[in-house]
Every structure is written in structure tokens, then in C-alpha cells.
Amino acid sequence: MRPDGRLPHELRRLAFQRRYTDAPLGSVLSSAGRTKVLCTVTVEDTVPAFLLNTNKGWLTAEYAMLPGSTGGRKPRERGGRPDARALEIGRLIGRSLRAAVDTGRFPGRTINVDCDVLQADGGTRTTAINGAMVALTDALRTMEQRNWLRGTAAQALATTIGAMSVGLLRGETIVDLCYEEDSRAEVDLNVVMTSDGRFVEVQGGAERGAFTQAQLDQMVGAARTALADVFALQQKALAGPLPADE
User: What is the CATH number of the domain that holds 200?
Assistant: First the structure.
């Protein structure tokens, strides 16, 4: 029995609360059980030097855990050595979302995606990617309204991106691991896919011992199945209008 009573293939309660804050072009509170990540999207009229005069835009992402997101205070970065884990996850989020967009639709502009963990209980990077995809869609729709795109938001989005954690715990394949499960798993993988079934990234490894090809195939298959629910929830969240100003 899992700590919260779920079956091996069952997800935690996923939710995407759009327009969580007003200032960004896209803002989503992404929740997976007790894990909560604020995903915001802003746009700058500039691109990195390597993209100058290329008629393309850019998308980049940053990730951080806020001080009160865990049981013990998470120190803020204040110069010196950067948080290597945060940098790695930020790059993962950026790579994942760049697979979703046609950067030629917003030449000369950089889309900035910020994912800040408000509360962590496992799966923060996958929760960030799933929520950031919703926030990015809202941002592109706003860019279309402001004539900041060549074409439409739908044309700028090549696909939808989703991410899922999956692991082996006591030899059993389970999806969407909470922290208690993640800390005890023999194998922990994070799978990022497109809604049409292509892989963007598979990362992870064994924490104890090793695993077989058959176990890897089973874990990836379980993640693919679980992601069908994620994509459906993303589309459901985006189907309605943005919440009105209060």
C-alpha cells in the first residue's frame, strides 16, 4: 500500500490554477498532491547573442525552491556557488518547453519561464514542467493578442509537453512518486514526452543495485500511460477562459 492509499498506476490529484498572479503573461499554480509550484512566463524584447540576426526567438527557464518549501529552511542563493540542482532542473524545463514551440514565430524575443517551488513533496520538476506548459500556452495566447507573434498561438505551439516521475519501490513499478516513496525507491526516472507520443527526455537511474531492460521498459510504459491523464488535464484547464480579475 502506498502512503496515500493510491494504486501503483494512480496519480496524485493534479490541478492547474491559471492566472494565479496578474502581472506575468502566463501564471499557473501547478499542484500534484502536496507539491505546489508557481509557474510564471514573461517576455523580453531581446535574444541571446548567438541568436542575433537569426530571425528566431528563444525560450529559457529557471527553477528555485523557496525557503519555506520544505521542513527545514531552504537557504536562498546569495552569490558564490550556484545551486547545481536548481540549475540542472531549470535547464531540463527549458529543454522540455523548447520542444513545444516554434521560436521562429517570435523573432527577437525571449520567453522567460520561472518555476518556484512553494511546497515540495516529490516530483517538483515534473510538476513544474506540467504547469509551465499551461502557463506558456496562456502567454502565447496573450502574445497573439498583442501582435507579438508571427501567426497564431496555435501555430507557435508545435505540441504539448508533459512530464511524469516513475520508479521501482520494493520491485514494483509506481508512478507520480511522493517524497516518502522517492526517498526509498530503488530506481527513480523522470520521463518527458510530447502529446503525440515522442520522447523529449528520460533521466534517472538506480539508487540501489541495478535494473533490467524489462524493468526499464515497464517504467517507461507506465509513465506513458500516466501522461495521457496529464495531457487531458492540461487541455481541460486550458479549455475555459482565463479567470476574471477579482
Answer: 3.30.230.70
> For cell 537511474, what's the residue?
205
At position 210, the amino acid (one-letter code) is: A
The answer to whether residue 156 is domain-embedded is yes
pLDDT at 246 over 60: no
For the chain, the average pLDDT equals 94
Check: CB of residue 136 under 8 Å from CB of residue 101.
yes
Look at the chain and count its residues: 246
The 10 Å CB-count burial string (b at 16+, else e) for 173-189 is: bbbbbbbebbeebbbbb
Question: Torsions phi, psi of 53, nearest 5?
Answer: 65, 25
pTM: 0.95
Residue 150 in domain: yes
The three-state secondary structure class of 70 is coil
Strand partners, 115: 39, 63
Alpha carbon distances (Å) from 222 to 26, 40, 83: 30, 29, 31
In terms of residue numbers, what domain contains 172? 14-239
pLDDT at 245: 59
In total, how many domains does the chain have?
Answer: 1
DSSP-derived 3-state class of residue 90: helix
Which residues does residue 79 pair with via DSSP β-bridges, in sequence order?
A: none
Answer whether residue 75 shows pLDDT above 90.
no
Q: What is the enclosing helix (H) or strand (E) of 86?
A: helix 84-98
Using left for φ > 0, alpha for ψ between -120 and 50, and beta otherwise, residue 64 falls in beta
